[in-house]
What does this fold into?
Amino acid sequence: MDEHHPTVRMHLWLETEDGVFFGLGRLKLLESIESSGSLKAAAISLGMSYRAAWGKIKRTERVLGFALIEKTAGNRTGYRLTEAGVLLKDSYRRWLDDVERMALERGSQLLPCIPRKYVQDDEEPLVCDCLATAVPAG
It folds into this structure.
């Protein structure tokens, strides 16, 4: 990380009195299930056990009262997202992206340095350059 361009990192999640039921980790899990068609492959790609992934999905389904994933066909096939699962995934992603964008813009207006978006995988970095200068190294 360049000292003149700190990276904005945010934690944004939904919880009940019993704890977290949806956040970035579950979003990535749903995105991975959607792209791979497999809960097992999604779990492996995220470095978690099948049981942990299954538990996270089931906990969120219990809290929300609807299914997020369903078998594609038969008992030995993969999974796909339900309509509700796609809606939750897409809506949460838009919300997260909007909050992050607003935080970057406001940070660029208020802070004496120009924050950058945290970049994962092959994303393009979003740099807000609302300030013309950065604080010199000291």
About this structure: The beta strands are 7-8, 14-16, 19-22, 69-71, 79-81, 116-117.
